[in-house]
Structures are given as structure tokens and as C-alpha cells.
Design a protein that fits this description.
The protein is of the alpha/beta class. Helix content is 53%, strand content 11%. It has 3 domains: 185 residues, P-loop containing nucleotide triphosphate hydrolases (Rossmann fold, 3-Layer(aba) Sandwich), CATH 3.40.50; 195 residues, no CATH class; 58 residues.
């Protein structure tokens, strides 16, 4: 197309404010070098964020950080043409590293960038960072629109606190005409829906002739993110379907084990632990842990991260399990023998004039036991349940929907600049957002009731829609400004997506 264009963003900041970390998160790949020291980035680096189908390109520039801004600005004020002077100075890269680094950032912003993203360390207050105002004095002379990004805010900050900090910085820097927007955007803990909001705001700041290209690039960016979202929902649906149809057969204990356990329960007055039930519980727990870790690993890969999920201990309570067992013919025969023997034995005693001294009761008990065992076997066959099984209860499966969504949120918020994926503490705001599950409770209950072993694909397909709706509701609850991006129809992927398998 004749109007295809390249749009450039430039990341600028004081040294060691997290520009390269943020660049890695946006690019979803490792670039540059990260270190807890000044001037880690030595030269400006150009990276393509995304390209549209029409040939447009969005470029991100990672630049060296400003160093001794106070002295640099003092020298600038002495010049009749400060911008021309700073661009022309022959500073040495090693002897004058702070000046040289600032010069590289200014050159890149002046010559290459449509919009400057100025990164602020949100852990500092305006009073703690006087260099910010000085560096914006310098950027004011370049004449490019500037957007403030509050980085290093941390995942535990509430939305209200993030807004408060953003307004504080916005008010502090309101005197600079170049500052157009301000956002809380943490390289470690941003969510991809916030990227779409940021992109939408930045598109309005590029030169008018390149705004159509900005619109196309935004659409490409959003389509890619929504495709990752759709694939992620398939991962969650598959994860939950595997658990919903899973069951563990319960073996039969021999008569001696059953009698010992039963008599022990009678003597102690409490139910004795069933070895077979404990074995089945461990088997179910091991499989669900494997499924959960495989799902997180898939999400990590989809979101352009590195690392693997760690095993997490699973605490299983009694109400988490649904146990179906056939009626025990041994126990039924003993009980049946006692009941029928009590009645039949009395009749036998009476038949012989009451002189058998209980031998009739013994005969009746034996006959009653044989009858009860046969009847129990026939009943189990009629129910189609000659062997026992253990499954997850409906309540446990619904609870696992919440766990799956929390796992998704943890990955979706994890910035690649942070390093290999590590599951962090769950913010309270995420837990509150899970209240949306109540809206799908009836639908989920119907899915659990219909889930059968061997019907994993059908169960996964039934789960896909409610999981998609729940994830959208949770994201909109956390980021209301992203509602327009989350309520539209999911775009069709460019390639056919095969059913996910964990």
C-alpha cells in the first residue's frame, strides 16, 4: 500500500530505571543487557515490535539512560541553541559516559522517534527524583510528544493506588507541554490488556499522516494478543476437562482386610482410614498436579515467557472427592444374616418347642447371610457399578476453575523482563475479581454432571465458552478501561488452531 509507514517509539529515562526490562516485556524476547548498575545500555538499539499485513512497522528504540542530568542541563542553558549544541558535542564514550549516554538518547529521540516513552521509577516520589524534571526540560526542547510510564510499581499495588501515583506525577510535571499522557505500566507486572490501552493512546499522538498506519498496527497488535487469549482459554478448558473426566478405580480388599477395618471402626467408634481410598486419592492428586503444571507450561510458552511451572502441594479435603462404591456383599451378608437370623431363628426355636437354645438363630443367620450377599450382588449389577471409583466432586471442580483463572492471570501479568517465570503471591484484587464465577455456576454444574470418562473432547468444548466469558469478566473487572478490547468478538486466527492437548 502507498500509505504504509514506520512508527517509532523511544524508551528514554534516567539510567537504571528499567527501560531494557520494559523493552523485553513488550517485545516478548530477550534483548540488550540487564543489570543493577548505571549505564548498562551503551548504544541505542532498534527493535521491531510488530508489523501489519499491509507492510507497516512499529519500531521500539531502547536508549542509553541519562546520567549527570543536572550538569548537562546547566551547560545546555548556556547555549544559544541548546539542542544543536548537545547533538554536536564530541563526548567520549568512556571518559564522558554520563554525557555521552544522554547525548545518544537525545539524538535517537530527535531523529527517530514519533513518541517518547519516558520511564519513571514508581518506587520514587517526585521529591526523591529531581532529575526527572530536569530531563523533561531537555526533552521539551526536542519537541516530541512524551508519555510517562510509571515502572517498577510492583504487582501488589491496587488500582486506586496506581491511579493516585499516576496523578501525583502528572500534576508534578503538568508544566511541561510535551507531556501528553501518564500511565502506570510495570515491566514486571503489566497485563497484556494494558498494552492495548497504551497503544490506543499512543496512536493519537503520531503525526496525522501516519495515523492510518498506527490504526492498522494497533489492530495487528490486538489481534495477536486476542489469538493468544483464545489459545489460552483452550489450555484452561483442556486442563479442567481432563480433571472433570478423571476417575480412579477402587480395588476390592479381601475379606480379612474388610472385617478388620469394619470391626476396628465399630470398636473405636470412628471410621478407620481405608488404604484403598488413600491410594486412589494420591493417584488423583498426582494426575491433577501433572495436568496443572502442563497447562502453566503451555501458557508460559504462549505468552512468550521462559521457565517452567513448579510443583505445588495440593491439599485435598473430604468434600473435594466423590466416591462411588458398590455395596459390600461381605458386610451386607453379615448384617443381613444378623437381621434375618434374629427373626428366622426365633421361628425355628418355636418350631421345636423352644428347646433348641439358639441353634435355630444360628441356622437362620447362615441362610440370611447367603440371601443378602446374593441380593447385594444382583443390586450392584443392576446399577452397573460392580467396582468402585473416586472422582473430583462438583464443588472441587468449580473451585479449580478459580485456580485455573488465577494461574492464567499470573502468567498474563508476568513480564519477560523479569526473567524466568515464577509464580508470585496472588493479589487480593485478583481474588475479588473471581466473584464472576458465580455467574457461570449453573452452566458449570451442568458440565460437571455431563462429564464422563472417555468424553474429554466434548467436555473441553463445553468448557471453552464459559472459560472465555469468565476470563473476560475478570480482566474487565481488573481493568475497566480495557472493556472494549475484551467484549468484542474474538478474531479468527490466521491458521487453524488444533485442539490443545496438555
Amino acid at each position: 500500500m502507498s500509505d504504509r509507514a514506520t512508527i517509532s517509539w523511544g524508551l528514554l529515562s534516567h539510567t537504571n530505571a528499567g527501560k531494557t526490562t520494559l523493552a523485553r516485556t513488550l517485545l516478548r524476547r530477550d534483548i540488550g543487557e540487564i543489570g543493577d548498575r548505571a549505564h548498562v545500555t551503551e548504544v541505542s538499539e532498534r527493535h521491531v515490535l510488530i508489523e501489519s499485513a499491509q507492510g507497516d512497522s512499529l519500531v521500539l528504540w531502547d536508549t542509553p539512560g541519562f546520567g549527570d542530568s543536572v550538569r548537562l542541563f546547566a551547560r545546555l542553558k548556556q547555549q544559544p541553541d541548546p539542542l544543536a549544541w548537545v547533538l554536536a558535542q564530541p563526548w567520549d564514550r568512556f571518559a564522558d559516559r554520563p554525557y555521552w549516554s544522554g547525548q545518544q538518547a537525545i539524538r535517537t529521540a530527535h531523529a527517530e522517534c514519533d513518541v517518547v516513552l519516558y520511564v519513571i521509577n514508581a518506587a520514587e516520589t517526585p521529591e526523591d527524583a529531581p532529575y526527572v524534571a530536569i530531563e523533561l526540560e531537555i526533552l521539551e526542547r526536542i519537541g516530541k510528544p512524551v508519555v510517562l510510564l510509571l515502572n517498577q510499581a510492583g504487582p501488589q499495588r491496587t488500582a486506586a493506588r496506581a491511579r493516585s501515583e499516576t496523578e501525583l506525577w502528572r500534576a508534578h510535571l503538568a508544566r511541561f507541554a510535551c507531556v501528553q499522557r501518564a500511565f502506570a505500566f510495570d515491566a514486571f507486572a503489566r497485563c497484556w490488556v494494558q498494552e492495548s490501552t497504551l497503544f490506543n493512546e499512543l496512536a493519537a499522538l503520531v503525526p496525522a499522516e501516519r495515523r492510518p498506519a498506527a490504526t492498522r498496527l494497533h489492530a495487528a497488535w490486538r489481534a495477536r494478543n486476542l489469538e493468544v487469549f483464545e489459545r489460552s482459554m483452550r489450555v484452561l478448558a483442556s486442563q479442567l476437562a481432563l480433571t472433570a473426566v478423571d476417575e480412579e478405580p477402587l480395588g476390592t480388599s479381601d475379606l480379612q482386610q474388610r472385617v478388620r477395618q469394619w470391626l476396628g471402626s465399630v470398636v473405636s467408634g470412628s471410621e478407620r482410614s481405608d488404604v484403598e481410598l488413600e491410594r486412589a486419592k494420591r493417584a488423583l492428586a498426582a494426575r491433577v498436579d501433572e495436568v496443572d503444571r502442563a497447562a502453566i507450561d503451555s501458557l508460559i510458552q504462549l505468552h512468550g515467557l521462559s521457565g517452567h511451572a513448579a510443583a505445588e502441594p495440593l491439599q485435598i479435603l473430604a468434600h473435594d472427592l466423590s466416591i462411588e462404591r458398590p455395596i459390600d456383599p461381605h458386610r451386607a451378608s453379615v448384617l443381613g444374616g444378623l437381621v434375618t437370623g434374629a427373626a428366622g431363628g426365633v421361628a425355628a426355636d418355636l418350631a421345636v418347642g423352644g428347646l433348641s437354645f439358639g441353634s435355630g438363630a444360628l441356622i437362620g443367620a447362615l441362610l440370611g447371610a447367603l440371601g443378602a450377599r446374593g441380593a447385594t450382588h444382583a443390586y450392584n449389577v443392576a446399577r452397573g457399578r460392580e467396582t468402585g471409583r473416586m472422582r473430583w466432586s462438583h464443588a472441587a471442580l468449580t473451585q479449580r476453575v478459580g485456580s485455573a483463572l488465577l494461574g492464567y492471570l499470573a502468567v498474563a501479568h508476568f513480564g519477560r523482563g523479569r526473567g524466568e517465570y515464577v509464580r508470585a503471591a496472588v493479589p487480593d484484587t485478583w481474588q475479588h475479581a473471581l466473584s464472576a464465577i458465580a455467574l457461570q455456576r449453573d452452566k458449570l454444574e451442568a458440565i460437571w454432571s455431563a462429564a464422563r470418562p472417555g468424553e474429554r473432547d466434548a467436555t473441553e468444548q463445553r468448557l471453552l465458552s464459559p472459560m472465555r466469558e469468565l476470563a473476560r469478566a475478570v480482566l474487565v473487572a481488573l481493568y475497566p478501561e480495557a472493556e472494549s478490547a475484551m467484549t468484542c468478538d474474538t478474531p479468527q486466527p490466521q491458521v487453524e488452531l488444533a485442539p490443545h492437548r496438555t
